[in-house]
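Hi D.,

Good news: the full-assembly prediction came through. Inputs first.
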Amino acid sequence: SQKIEQNSEALNIQEGKTATLTCNYTNYSPAYLQWYRQDPGRGPVFLLLIRENEKEKRKERLKVTFDTTLKQSLFHITASQPADSATYLCALDPSSSGGYNKLIFGAGTRLAVHP
Amino acid sequence: GAGVSQSPRYKVAKRGQDVALRCDPISGHVSLFWYQQALGQGPEFLTYFQNEAQLDKSGLPSDRFFAERPEGSVSTLKIQRTQQEDSAVYLCASSPRTGALTYNEQFFGPGTRLTVL
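Then the structure:
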């Protein structure tokens, strides 16, 4: 069956450290993958998009990698801050959506950054 | 407004009642999506509109769920004869364009939390 897996347990790290979140998928061949942040009581907010022909993408303290052979994306937050505490969702287009970017989401990983 | 808005933010319904959830997308956005998010889970796709046309309703759980976007802007998700399993957060998202290789980000509203008693 097709699925997207993210670390189900919360990730607790110390302020200033690098947080690494994992997204694995099976039975998809996505053209791209997106990462979103979701705070309690709010909708997801887009962070980064990485295409299948890109190995790595950076934006400020964020870095995403995409390994289509391993079917895995890693999401890194360097120099983490308590304000980075949130749930992070990975999402992909199953490439059967006819070009309208329908997204399939993982369950998300909750990150807690402690002072 | 600057973002996607949804109303009401919270809705409590008795089992068997009909509910209507509203989404105001970002002005000019062609694509509109509805998602259902259960507690502790990621959003699950329900339906997609390109302007006023509903192109994909494959995620709607049953024929009790109905969505419309008659003028290509505001959308309404209607749930008839609500059941307890319908309790969830309903998210609306819009994006500016459509088409292969555009890879648009989606802009989400805050969601409507529906509780069916």
